[in-house]
Backbone:
């Protein structure tokens, strides 16, 4: 470890540091613009410099409007997104962890071809799958219910792959053997010993799934026609469409509401990102290095 | 003999661990593929319901100008956006890992943060920044007295979309590559340093070759992402109404066939064709990556 830090104690370059801060600015400025715009009226959006505040501060006014517009549907959208993202991602991670562990630690019949099929399905474009899923779900009468979002959300083939790779290295086979000799059952071994060792990988799959579900648009747009069931992305897209609609009848007065609603919607995920940054690196590397 | 039997029993318990996943996998991936594959061989008639038409829908898709136009557009998008995005991700990952910059952790997080922003919000935001009258770029041009960039012109619309997608995903790819570099042994770097290699040389000659599998992984994910382009152009329909239409990308076309024209059978065929194209491009990329590696080995 000390050798590693030795190498990384390089001379810092001021020029390179400034260049990279400039690069970072390109990635944050749009987000800063969005947050600044939450303090403005619609005319303020046009009349004042985008990255600085106008004379008036309408932040609370805009927030109040976001939560009261359309009978306060925004609150429902937040709730829906939370329900889909939290339940979906935890179930997805749990199911993927079990499956990855199963593929890694047991040699059962058909295991190899099934795993191949699962890995192959990572390659299927999720939006090319959305319309087919809609067709099956409409036969099952699941369209326009929460299940239409939750069921596809818990399937994470990439998660299974990552957890298989992770199980290979994180859970030593002799630990399992030792527990078996002590007479511990297979499921108890999993819940009491392995699951704890797999926790970092589990968190990575939760994160990947949360982002996927939170940001998903195509599937809920197809599946959900009732605004009360829609997540934030679909709801906001609808408001945005109303505020910019090209064929006349655009309701530009709601632009502040759209922008404020949009910026509030990204706060939770940004917080999750900042706090769980290291899990990304751990998890993604285990998948990427072992090709 | 008995212990062997016990052993096989233990091994087959593995299936129980996998079954919950398989159930959902079948419901939301296998069944949709099978069912829509089935539907794609039928056509709805005005009178008498659906009838089996064999490959007619696929033949129609192959001859469909609008479908091809969309496919060409996302193909162009892929060729234009993905190399740039991955190159930037690679450069950023190497610079951050080199230990040569200050605030490297801060910079890393900021570049990654756009990945947390939903495509819907990202497009909405960039749409305003691009605005010809009051957007941030227009304000900047006015301030500098330079001509305004027309982000929604015929030639600029696709690059404008590419910029949004790049903004969203550079950080994600950078983190994958950065994490891969962190997994390498540093002994080689030290040896190279003793031999007088600078950090650029170490990055190029030691880190990049080892990064090949990770870059390949990013490339494959990008193939899938590019060809299913949907959210960004859909959200920009109102901003560039004369350039973006409902058939701008294959996915928008499929959506339109399914929910506007109500031709579910044809939409299923189009979705399959798109999946097939993605599959073929992925294989092409894989073959090319292997060839490149073999060629290099041959040279050495």
Residues:
């Amino acid at each position: 470890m000390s050798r590693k830090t030795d190498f990384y104690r390089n001379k810092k370059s001021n020029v390179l540091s400034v260049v990279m801060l400039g690069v970072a600015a390109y990635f944050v400025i749009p987000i800063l613009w969005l947050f600044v715009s939450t303090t403005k009226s619609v005319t303020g959006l046009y009349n004042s410099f985008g990255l600085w505040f106008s004379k008036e501060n309408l932040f609370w006014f805009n927030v109040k409007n976001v939560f009261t517009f359309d009978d306060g549907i925004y609150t429902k959208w937040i709730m829906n997104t939370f329900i889909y993202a939290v339940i979906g991602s935890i179930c997805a991670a749990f199911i993927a962890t079990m499956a990855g562990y199963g593929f890694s630690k047991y040699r059962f019949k058909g295991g190899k071809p099934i795993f191949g099929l699962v890995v192959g399905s990572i390659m299927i474009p999720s939006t090319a799958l959305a319309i087919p899923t809609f067709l099956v779900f409409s036969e099952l009468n699941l369209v326009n219910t929460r299940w239409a979002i939750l069921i596809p959300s818990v399937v994470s083939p990439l998660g299974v792959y990552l957890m298989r790779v992770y199980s290979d290295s994180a859970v030593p086979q002799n630990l399992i053997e030792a527990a078996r000799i002590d007479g511990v059952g297979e499921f108890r071994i999993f819940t009491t010993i392995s699951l704890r060792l797999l926790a970092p990988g589990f968190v990575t799959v939760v994160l990947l799934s949360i982002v996927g579900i939170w940001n998903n648009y195509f599937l809920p747009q197809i599946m959900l026609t009732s605004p009360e069931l829609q997540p934030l992305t679909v709801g906001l897209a609808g408001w945005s469409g109303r505020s910019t609609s090209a064929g006349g009848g655009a309701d530009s007065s709601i632009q502040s509401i759209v922008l404020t609603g949009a910026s509030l919607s990204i706060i939770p995920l940004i917080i999750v990102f900042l706090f769980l940054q290291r899990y990304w690196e751990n998890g993604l590397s285990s998948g990427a290095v072992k090709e | 003999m008995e212990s062997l039997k016990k052993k096989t029993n233990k091994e087959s318990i593995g299936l129980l661990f996998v079954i919950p996943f398989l159930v959902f996998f079948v419901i939301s991936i296998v069944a949709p593929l099978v069912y829509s594959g089935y539907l794609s061989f039928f056509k709805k008639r005005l009178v008498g319901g659906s009838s089996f038409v064999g490959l007619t829908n696929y033949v129609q898709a192959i001859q469909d100008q609008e479908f091809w136009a969309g496919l060409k557009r996302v193909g162009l998008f892929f060729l234009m956006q993905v190399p740039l995005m991955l190159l930037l991700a690679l450069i950023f990952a190497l610079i951050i890992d080199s230990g040569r910059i200050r605030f490297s952790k801060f910079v890393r997080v900021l570049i990654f943060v756009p990945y947390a922003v939903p495509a819907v919000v990202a497009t909405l935001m960039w749409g305003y920044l691009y605005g010809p009258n009051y957007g941030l770029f227009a304000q900047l041009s006015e301030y500098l007295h330079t001509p305004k960039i027309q982000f929604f012109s015929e030639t600029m619309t696709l690059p404008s979309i590419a910029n949004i997608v790049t903004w969203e995903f550079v950080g994600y790819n950078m983190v994958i590559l950065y994490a891969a570099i962190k997994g390498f042994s540093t002994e080689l770097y030290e040896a190279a340093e003793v031999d007088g290699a600078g950090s650029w040389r170490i990055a190029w000659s030691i880190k990049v070759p080892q990064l090949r599998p990770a870059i390949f992984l990013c490339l494959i994910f990008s193939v899938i992402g590019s060809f299913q382009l949907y959210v960004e152009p859909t959200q920009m329909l109102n901003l560039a109404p004369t350039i973006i239409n409902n058939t701008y990308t294959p996915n928008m076309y499929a959506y339109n066939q399914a929910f506007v024209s109500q031709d579910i059978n044809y939409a299923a065929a189009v979705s399959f064709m798109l999946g097939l194209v993605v599959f073929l491009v992925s294989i092409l990329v894989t073959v090319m990556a292997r060839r490149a590696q073999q060629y290099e080995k041959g040279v050495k």
Notes: Residues 1-6 of chain A have pLDDT under 50 and may be disordered. Residues 204 and 279 of chain A are 6 Å apart (CA to CA). Chain A has one domain: 69-288.
